[in-house]
Amino acid sequence: MKYxxxxxxxxxxxxxxxxxxAFIAFQVIPGDVVTSIxxxxxxxxxxxxxxxxxxxxxxxxxxxxxWVSGVLSGDLGVSYRYSKSMNEMMPVAELxxxxxxxxxxxxxxxxxxxxxxxIPLGVFWxxxxxxxxxxxxxxxxxxxxxxxxxxxxxxxxxxFGIVFHCFTPGGYVSYRDDLSxxxxxxxxxxxxxxxPKIAMTARFLRNSMLLELSSDYVRTARSKGCTNxxxxxxxxxxxxxxxxxxxxxxxxxxxxxxxxxxxxxxxLPGVGRLxxxxxxxxxxxxxxxxxxxxxxxxxxxxxxxxxxxxMIDPRISDK
Amino acid sequence: xxxxxxxxxxxxxxxxxxxxTAGLFMTxxxxxxxxxxxxxxxxxxxxxxxxxxFAAPSFRHLFGxxxxxxxxxxxxxxxxxxxxxxxxxVVLCAGGAGICIGAVTGYFxxxxxxxxxxxxxxxxxxxxxxxxxxxVSVLGGGIRNLILSLSIVFMPSFIRIVRSEFIKFRDADYIxxxxxxxxxxxxxxxxxxxxxxxxxxxxxxxIGLNNAILAESGMSYLGIGVQPPTASLGKxxxxxxxxxxxxxxxxxxxxxxxVWIVLGFSLLSEGIRSRAQ
Amino acid sequence: xxxxxxxxxxxDGTEVVKNVSFQIADGxxxxxxxxSGSGKSVTALxxxxxxxxxxxxxxxxxxxxxTVLAEAGKKRDRELLRSFLGSKMSMVFQEPMTSLNxxxxxxxxxxxxxxxxxxxxxxxxxxxxxxxxxxxxxxDAQKVYGSYPHQLSGGMRQRVMIAMAxxxxxxxxxxxxxxxxxxVTVQNQIIALLKEISIxxxxxxxxxxxxxxxxxxxxxxxxxxxxxxxxxxxxxxxxFQCPKEEYTKKLIxxxxxxxxxxxxxxxxxxxxxxxxxxxxxxxxxxxxHLDVFYREGSNSLFxxxxxRCVVEDASFEIKKGEVLGLVGESGCGKSSxxxxxxxxxxxxxxxxxxxxxxxxxxxxxPYSSLNPSKTIGWLxxxxxxxxxxxxxxxxxxxEDRRAAAYEMLKKIGLKESYFDRKPAELSGGQRxxxxxGQALITHPxxxxxxxxxxxxxVTIQAQIMELLQSLQExxxxxxxxxxxxxNVIYRMSDRVLVxxxxxxxxxxxxEEVFRQPKEAYTKLLLECG
Lengths: 319, 277, 529
Fold this sequence. Notes:
The structure holds 3 protein chains of 3 kinds.
Chain A: H1 2-28, H2 34-38, H3 44-54, H4 60-72, E1 78-83, E2 89-91, H5 92-97, H6 100-127, H7 131-146, H8 149-163, H9 179-213, H10 216-223, H11 228-266, H12 271-280, H13 284-312, H14 314-317
Antiparallel strand pairs in A: 1-2
Chain B: H1 2-39, H2 72-108, H3 110-125, H4 128-139, H5 143-170, H6 173-181, H7 185-193, H8 198-222, H9 233-240, H10 248-276
Helix pairs in contact in B: 1-2, 1-10, 2-3, 2-5, 2-8, 2-10, 3-5, 4-5, 5-8, 8-9, 8-10, 9-10
Chain C: E1 2-11, E2 14-24, E3 29-34, H1 40-48, E4 55-64, E5 67-71, H2 78-84, E6 89-92, H3 106-117, H4 122-135, H5 141-145, H6 154-166, E7 172-176, H7 184-200, E8 204-209, H8 212-218, E9 221-226, E10 229-235, H9 236-241, H10 246-254, H11 263-274, E11 285-296, E12 306-318, E13 323-327, H12 334-341, E14 348-354, E15 360-362, H13 376-390, H14 398-411, H15 428-440, E16 446-450, H16 458-474, E17 478-483, H17 486-492, E18 495-500, E19 503-509, H18 510-515, H19 520-528
Helix pairs in contact in C: 3-4, 3-6, 4-6, 6-7, 10-16, 13-14, 13-15, 15-16
């Protein structure tokens, strides 16, 4: 329990540091945004007015505090690029609200695929002694890891969308309109994210199991008369799974990041697409919030993984 | 029975070399095309020809032509060059800095090491795409900034690998003895320890090249990396996506090229690793 | 009861066990003795059917009572074998650290034996395990039952292993170097326990060891193995008193024992006086009231440093040309002491006074004491290069260095052709020779040898000790010789320090300490060794 408390404190400290870093990166370094919003031909009065509106005339620490308290109370600032109407600026919160679920669903969907497929596959692979399936799995996994996810997305679009007509490329269905249609469409992007990660995870699990299989306690278990099955599932799997937990933490982070690219490929209106378009248009308030959100998710995931690891491995929880 | 065992042994040896051979062949071919592409391509990469739009692959146009009637093979060659240039510079910067920083922090340890480790841990745990996006968005696009940001993103993994190797050897008996002999620190770092981490470092270089290639093409695909008119594999893919129905080869050519390169380097690293053991 | 007939085992076509035959009678303790690579473990693992698929039975058969467990050319009956494992024969392994599953409670691991071979209900299984734990001398069996392996000491883990192995009262217990990884005093307890159990449960035992002394104490009969063959077998008495084979004699002769006096030491003492060197000259090393500390906890920014005292109030001196033996069990602080003397640990209090420049050190592990990326010649020259850089006066030309390296190669008993080889091509003993050569090529006045022969086979051990001794005398070298093996210390040193839990508890001339030990702990060490 004490450990979890410690972990939470570290978590909060890390989030604070990240927010400072994000603030510096997007509000201090890029320089004056006012000219970039209004263009070079605006009057000095208009510039000064906008500067005041955005709070840019204040010193940096004060701006940081304003920004953070805003973020914590749900006021995420306003976009430089999008606007609601002629004279009303677009709040970032509204911009993100309906895009966030798309990305989260996609990441969760792919993650489930990864875990459900890669773990049995890895165990099967470690147990498999015949050279033929071994070589086949080896080649397949090498291949799968070499395909960049965006190309995989294009291949899947071509194969399942155009050749087999399993879905309509670009025909995104909103989760508000038709949930099953939404998940049906999401399956293909999820597969595109999952395939390379499945290959990596299965490979990692297999190597970890093979390593454990060569350890002394396995010999002891055999000397007791354990069947191969029992050795595998009762002795090896648990130990082999320890490093896989950490690895999965990394995979989760990569999956969230991977959805940024895949959204682009499949035309999904998620935060990833928003992020890319905001970066292209240098819409920093939006980028800043998105980066903060994604980072927070990644940090929390790592923290949870650490806690989980500690709960499972008796060697660590003891110290 | 003995004969069978001998056969098994030679088979194993062959299999071990197979990775290296395949990897060397694949990466060698790519390197050749990249260098050749600088001096000569079958067609001018920017020459458009309205009459030859979307020509299917043939002997005239090995990979077909694109929506402007440009020869895809020539553009792929040039794209490989761009990718090779960017990713090797990235690995050179990140790897060079990684060796220096990793060697010093790993060997001496202490507060500096602790601080640098915290930073590299944070950067390393972070999805590389996101980090690159952030840096590129702050610094702005273009090849120079792409190289810079990818170098920053990849440096921590090199530092970590070099550092952990130096920690491993720092307390090795023969290094302790070298210290007792009165060998200077620089000599210990670079003459005594460095040759021992060579193969590990080589493996991490090939992996780093792979990641750099993937990151570069990903960035270019998203439109934040290499800007037109320079040909790049990622950009070609994103252009081709709109014509999947009519000209699937337009997407397949650059995509499969990326797969080929990445696979080549993975096999190479696997080969080096098993050779080192 | 168990008969092994003409057994041959091959790995990838190379035979590692050749035509081995022996039998084990009911209740008998049979010792299999041999150096590393003699095939003794492979024989035992073949008996248990625990070898990997790469191993192949190329000849002979194994019978247990009337059942054929394995036969060349036939596929092993896994089901049959499994019914034998644990219930009719079981095994205790060398590494107590890694032989137990790290993430399963040890009680559960022992209980698994019952779960696999009996139909007892869970409650009864647990009581049986607890009984067995108590029987093997584990105090507070209940607590041990719920512990994970890392929470137990090496000796306790080995007791758990033994409890697990004998809980079903198997007819045969195979013990593969069960005490090698343990300290001598613990070693003794485990040996006594094994003996006690085999008498109580009337089981036969196959005791595999490299240590002739152990075999002599425990076994009824002994099989001597070398390079996969049985060299000699017979009653223990007979083997030790009138060994027939040359190799057996060599093996027995190589074991450092206290019967043989260290004549050379006396000789050198006499010679020293002849040379007119009075013992009066200042000692090479003086250590006064030295405390050595060890920083606990990780080097983390957040957790404060705690210092733990690992050596307390050590005082001693080493005279010129003298070998001072330092003996103690693992964790007694002997390595920390040597590190402090060499200035590698700065966390010290007290006085260390060197009168020689650049003391050198030899380590235990021959596989990590030589830089694998260099050639032997380069390695031998490196100390000269380093010395030359530090002091222009001793700088040598490249030719002189080469010549010196060749000369050293000869001195350490290696052929000239080794000059261009890399350490990977050398055996453990040869590497240790190069280590010695590297340490001594600059003619240092003082050398610390930290368990230099502990990782070597007995015959090699004897050779290395001989080499070290002759070079030490030739160079009038002062030496701090550290070992856990009291017999090795006896053979090598002029004076002895006994260390326990960070303190030097006894010191004196070798003969004096060995004949009339004052401390109880020294006596215990002498009894066990």
